[in-house]
Amino acid sequence: MSKYWSNLTANLQPYIPGEQPKDQKYIKLNTNENPYPPSPRVIEAIKQAANDDLRLYPDPTCQQLCDTIAQYYGLRSNQVFVGNGSDEILAFVFPAFFNPSQKILFPDITYSFYPVYAQLYGQTYETVAVDEAFNIHAEHYCVPNGGIVIPNPNAPTAEYMTLPALRTILDANRDQVVVVDEAYIDFGGQSAITYINEYPNLLVVQTLSKSRSLAGLRVGMAYGHEDLIEGLNRIKNSFNSYTLDRLALAGAIAAFEDEAYFEETTAKVIATREWSVNHLRELGFHVIESKANFVFASHPQALAADLFKQLKEKGILVRYFNKPRIDQFLRISIGTDEEMEALISALHSLLGK
Amino acid sequence: MSKYWSNLTANLQPYIPGEQPKDQKYIKLNTNENPYPPSPRVIEAIKQAANDDLRLYPDPTCQQLCDTIAQYYGLRSNQVFVGNGSDEILAFVFPAFFNPSQKILFPDITYSFYPVYAQLYGQTYETVAVDEAFNIHAEHYCVPNGGIVIPNPNAPTAEYMTLPALRTILDANRDQVVVVDEAYIDFGGQSAITYINEYPNLLVVQTLSKSRSLAGLRVGMAYGHEDLIEGLNRIKNSFNSYTLDRLALAGAIAAFEDEAYFEETTAKVIATREWSVNHLRELGFHVIESKANFVFASHPQALAADLFKQLKEKGILVRYFNKPRIDQFLRISIGTDEEMEALISALHSLLGK
User: Fold this and answer.
1) Is the Cβ pair B231, A9 closer than 8 Å?
2) Which of A148, A201, A214, B77 is the most exposed place for a label (fewest CB within 10 A)?
3) Partner B contacted by A213 (CB < 8 A)
4) Would the keyword Aminoacyl-tRNA synthetase turn up in this protein's UniProt record (chains A, B) (predicted)?
5) pLDDT by residue (tens digit) across A254-304?
6) Rounded to a whole number, what is the distance in Å from the CA of B277 to chain A's nearest CA?
7) Is A153 on the interface with B (CB under 8 A)?
8) Residues of chain B neighbouring A34 (CB-CB closer than 8 A)
9) Is residue A266 part of a domain?
10) Is the pLDDT of residue A249 over 90?
């Protein structure tokens, strides 16, 4: 606390990122990174862009990247927005579309950054309880509100909402913006992008951090009606006109140009996930059906907090949330086959099986 | 205008970056980029960092970069903050230290992003008139206020404030944060960094975009008392925990490690500036004394708007602001010797000399 802090700064409860311990080499299954490297074409494009032109500002409109993405998804360029990770885009979404006086709705168990954004902009929100099986019910979002954020699949539960259920929410909220946060959609879910020309109230947010193996490059995307994209640009240009550097722009374009690599690595993650779910269930875990690159699992005979600690001692990092309703669960990112075999083997011995 | 925009979005007047025309190759003297490329060590460090680790999140604390900068300036690491360009840092400064009810002070002629930040956060501000010669007077800032932003040197005027004058402002505002925006300080000015251990109310903001030739990499820095740095981190971690990608972190560290290159290119820009000022004055221009990598100049016999247009037709881009008090001036970035010779030659023929 400092007398120089604004009231806002003093009252904020900032987001806490997952731990990145440097004390030893871990099998890192705690921050939902992709176990496979980015496409070689991405690496090559970045090396090419590491040249004397770095003395010049990047294109503030990110036109070439927006064009590439628009073509990839069959959208128009003015339906595409890009930012410094999907976190930054969400940080623009809240002031762009939500008014302080009206309650924003999102699930009670979800990405813990949502309430922080609301706090940052002095907004009110109401969390909507997911059911006992962590399902999000569309009808709970068909009530008066000032905007909606639906993570799909949800994190940390991995629960996936079908497109028809999303349509129910979009139909009931024609006057509010419905944001679908699809950070994990590429691992088996169906994207709401197909609804964009039909629903001017829909904004889909995605990222290169997970399915494109580029958490270290910081690139996120949003798709929606051109009026929504213009709204995001108004906020962006009141905050920072040059959010993406020349290297991130070059790498992101290359990522969308290597479809074969994307399909191959995504399929591998999905296959390893299915293998992992089966083995976790064999060990007695209750595992939520997942369409993400992580699973959410609890064991009836072992405390999640204990397992978390014991796994860390064995050099395996997973994520544990000491929060109501989910404090008996572990969130486990899907690694390589070898990493998941090591996890299953460690759990085997910890559970005395 | 869209019914989905928040009231904030609808009422904002976003910043407009300098034009980056793509219709032809220009001599680009309009956005204060450095005419020399970044250090070869920066390019090499980025190429090294373009590797498989891009699948992993960057260090959200940017510890290694903060350590490097702290050592460079003789500060402690907790007195250093880094962000996605100094624009992003300024966008964190406004909510971190300024309350909506109290008036922020900054000059009437200055970087046009300051009032946009205030608008974004619903803050009030009062612009303080610079004098006829564009000087900022310290005593004008010794009045009740809710925070102060002093650009030094100022843009677009290039006016420089001495350290003793800054001290007057710091002494008179012990309960407010005084932000000194030193984007252009390395071209001949003295940095207020030397005051940091003495004034807990001082925050110095700098950038790699100008003197380090890295406008395309998007890295800014802030230095101040650890409480101020903590305040900035609270806002950052309520907005986006990973603002700097792995490539920007690697390149920025290398930039601080190549002092010889920095000194050589900065000296060249300063020498070319002095040559340019002399030749502009010989052509009859009134040129403000500059300690930046640009000059602000007006000609008694020619309209600035006309010269801007005529230079563009000749393939030379400079910056013209159609704003009260400065609409008779051109802001001209310092290019290479060859570029400035081309400018002087073009002006020579335009002025019929």
Assistant:
1) yes
2) B77
3) yes
4) no
5) 999 999 999 999 999 999 999 999 999 999 999 999 999 999 999 999 999
6) 23
7) no
8) 55
9) yes
10) yes
Whether the Cβ atoms of residue A330 and residue A304 lie closer than 8 Å to each other: yes
Report how far residue B219's alpha carbon sits from residue B46's, in angstroms, rounded to the nearest whole number.
14
User: What is the mean pLDDT of the segment spanning B313-325?
Assistant: 95
Provide ipTM, 2 decimals.
0.97
Judging contacts by C-beta atoms under 8 Å, the chain A residues touching residue B33 are 55-57
Indicate if B264 and B253 belong to the same structural domain: no
Asked if the C-beta of A2 comes within 8 angstroms of chain B's C-beta atoms, the answer is yes
For residues B208-220, average pLDDT: 98
Residue B2 covered by a domain = no
Measure in Å the smallest separation between the Cα of A73 and chain B Cα atoms.
Answer: 23
CB contact under 8 A, A215 and B87: no
Domain count, chain B: 2
**Long-range contact set of residues A60-68: C-beta below 8 Å, sequence gap at least 24:** A60/A237, A60/A241, A60/A242, A60/B17, A60/B20, A62/A244, A62/A249, A64/A249, A64/A253, A65/A244, A65/A249, A65/A252, A65/A253, A68/A252, A68/A253, A68/A256, A68/A257
What end-to-end distance do the CA atoms of chain A give, in Å? 50
How does strand B294-298 pair with strand B316-317?
unpaired
Distance from C-alpha of B346 to C-alpha of B281, rounded to nearest angstrom: 15
Asked if A55 has any chain B CB less than 8 Å from its own CB, the reply is yes
Please identify, among B257, B290, B322, the residue that sits at the C-terminal boundary of a domain: B257
Q: Do B9 and A243 touch (CB under 8 A)?
A: no
Whether B115 has its CB under 8 Å from any CB of chain A: the answer is no
Which strands, in side-by-side order, build the sheet including A286-287?
A286-287, A294-298, A330-333, A319-320
Nearest to B227 among A2, A57, A251 (CB): A2
Look up the domain containing B331 and give its range: 20-37+260-350
Give the pLDDT band of residue A1 (cuts 50, 70, 90). Answer: confident
What is d(CA A198, CA A214) in angstroms, rounded to the nearest whole number?
Answer: 31
How far, CA to CA in Å, does B319 sit from each of A336, B36, B157? 53, 20, 12
